[in-house]
Amino acid sequence: MDDSPERRLGTVLFWIFLFLPAGLVAVVLALPKGPANLTQTVGIASLLAWPVCSLYCGGWLGVRLGRTPLREFFLGAVFTVAIAGLNFFILLAGCSRVMRFAG
Prior knowledge:
Number of helices: 3
Structural class: mainly alpha
Low-confidence stretches: none
Order of helices and strands: HHH
Distance between the termini: 53 Å
Shape: elongated
């Protein structure tokens, strides 16, 4: 198994990017009701982060699990769509709670 620094960095980035959108939503949900600007800022950061994180994680999983370039592409696309969908629904659930407080 290749244990190069680049591969370890890719693994660490994968785990960070996998949990980053859900973590930002958890921060939004944990914030008190008061500062609307802060919750909106964190919510917008989460909105901008989920597509990038989903692309990276899906691509990383595709490259890790695919044995041929075609399989890497197909698995990367499938994992990207799956992770993006999950992140979107987590974001939607978190933002709907925040919007109720703001309104």
